[in-house]
Specification:
The protein folds into 2 domains: 128 residues, NAD(P)-binding Rossmann-like Domain (Rossmann fold, 3-Layer(aba) Sandwich); 183 residues, NAD(P)-binding Rossmann-like Domain (Rossmann fold, 3-Layer(aba) Sandwich). It contains 12 helices and 13 strands. The mean pLDDT is 97. The structure holds (2R)-2,3-dihydroxypropanoic acid.
């Protein structure tokens, strides 16, 4: 008896690194349709593109909701997102339909932790502001009280979400002379926390005691808006807030008020709501707020690896095999 021919159709929602696309096209039996652009796929193209496909390779900027799943129809077997975050996926609807999900944890941990540390240092030592002063003639002489910021030595660092990225951030910050690590999250993780002698505390205490706060948690209904007015009011006046997880963890209006009113010293954000943040957004007018365009995982090597992992997750799911990284619901 001849083996049944393996023939699957997949839709890829964006131009991705060539290595990922190659993995799909070299698999044999996998027909790829792609929105071959650096810009997001228009909604109508997404709905049309996914129709009748068995696989979908998407990005964190694609909202995969009931409408998309309905447009795909019952043929859709696997969704593979080229991201560790999965808050853009309607998990309940996906689970109901028995669709498997692949994602890309681990491979972006180092790059994202590195960016978190870079953003923290840029924010607490006022690097963008200082660079601007050099360019605009504000640098007139060496001044004892000019462009001073806050250093990590002897500080207390609070990490919201001591997962893979949170741990990698703590590991990188420790050699800067951090005195104590605090962490908050859904549950204590004593084995993991032991490496940093980190103490599990309620998020309110973390806000009150930390000199630096780094948010690296997953966006869930529990973490949405957790950094709000009450949180910022509890923070020390000379403390620095960093978010490299998802914008929706933060109430941005409350953050703006905290920065303007001097409730906190500064903030560094790699993630915002919405993304991109409109160029006239009030947060962008503040010198004590450093905003990056969601580049946590943006190294060439990491993005290559993410694309290959996303492709391999998709292929394995389509073949009914174990995925290298499956999101188990
Ligand atoms: C992810 O993969 O979810 C990250 O936010 C990308 O940097």
């Amino acid at each position: 008896m001849r083996a049944a021919r393996w023939a699957m159709e997949v839709f890829v929602t964006r131009r991705i690194p060539a290595a990922g696309l190659r993995a799909l096209s070299e698999a044999g039996g996998c027909t790829v349709r792609q929105w071959d652009s650096d810009e997001p796929v228009p909604r109508a193209e997404l709905l049309a593109g996914v129709a009748g496909k068995q696989g979908l390779l998407c990005l964190l900027s694609d909202r995969i909701d009931k409408e998309v799943l309905d447009a795909a129809g019952s043929s859709l077997k696997v969704i593979s997102t080229m991201s560790v975050g999965f808050d853009h996926l309607a998990l309940h609807e996906i689970k109901k339909r028995g669709i498997r999900i692949g994602y890309t944890p681990d491979v972006l941990t180092d790059a994202t932790a590195e960016l978190s540390v870079a953003l923290l240092l840029a924010t607490c030592r006022r690097l963008p502001e200082s660079v601007e002063e050099v360019k605009n003639g504000g640098w007139t002489t060496w001044k004892p009280l000019w462009m001073c910021g806050y250093g990590l030595s002897d500080s207390i660092v609070g990490i919201i979400g001591l997962g893979r990225i949170g741990q990698a951030v703590a590991r990188r910050l420790k050699p800067f002379g951090v005195k104590k690590f605090l962490y908050a999250g859904s549950r204590p993780k004593p084995e993991i926390a032991a490496e940093f002698e980190a103490e599990f505390v309620p998020v309110t205490r973390l806000a009150e005691e930390s000199d630096f706060i780094v948010v690296t948690c997953t966006l869930t209904p529990e973490t949405e808006g957790v950094c709000n007015k009450d949180f910022f009011c509890r923070m020390k006046k000379n403390s620095v807030f960093i978010n490299t997880s998802r914008g929706a963890v933060v109430n941005q209006e409350d953050l703006y008020n905290a920065l303007v009113n001097g409730q906190i010293a500064a903030a560094g954000l790699d993630v915002t709501t919405p993304e991109p943040l409109p160029a006239d957004h009030p947060l962008l007018s503040l010198k004590n707020c450093v905003i990056l365009p969601h580049i946590g995982s943006a190294t060439y090597a990491t993005r290559n690896t993410m694309s290959v992992l996303a492709a391999n997750n998709l292929l394995a799911g389509l073949k009914g095999e174990p995925m290298p990284s499956e999101l188990l619901l």
